[in-house]
Amino acid sequence: MVEKVNPPKRSYGQFCALARALDVIGDRWTLLIVRELLPGAMRYGELRTSLAGIATNLLADRLRGLEADGIVERHIGDAGVVYRLTPRGAALREPMEALGRWGVPLLASGRGDDAFQPRWLTLAVPALLRGRTASPAVEAGVEVEGFLMTVRIDETGPSAFVPAERPRTVLTASPDVLVCLATGTVSAEEAIELGELEGDPAPLRSVFAPSP
């Protein structure tokens, strides 16, 4: 599939931080490429597979633009060429989490035929749990459509990552149930009833405890 690539990027021509930011990341697909790279480096083919619907020439064009703007860099390693975020690119996590929280009500209409990758939840879940802290740290595993991740809350806040070993507590659930659990729409007990729990439910209750 080949998609027409837009002409060279144009500026809003405004001396405004938001306008200048949109000059860099406001094009279609750009923030979604950043979303894919937030968990870690990816090869071009992996990006192409994960971003269903993007034409290969448009992906290449967006990556070139992100490189030129200092958001993404190419790295040659044992796996070949991979793309990863620069520190400047990684700094987009916080505003993207805020935008994701703003967009949660738009999910109410359901998934329909929209594409979905479970790995996107490593960004979405911490964003929805933002502001919560715990000492000592608490964590629990969540499995969605075969993708396993650990959700952890410590003194610095929430995070989500792919664990090296299977956690002792794992909730297997649909993406809808997990989003509802993270937003507080359903309780841990309700999520367990709607899904399947492996192990002790206490860590799950601690991670997804209602906000005070």
Automatic annotation (TrEMBL):
GO terms for molecular function: DNA binding. InterPro entries: HTH_HxlR (IPR002577), WH-like_DNA-bd_sf (IPR036388), WH_DNA-bd_sf (IPR036390). Keywords: DNA-binding, Transcription, Transcription regulation. Residues 16-111 form the HTH hxlR-type domain. This is HTH-type transcriptional activator hxlR. It comes from Tsukamurella paurometabola (Corynebacterium paurometabolum).
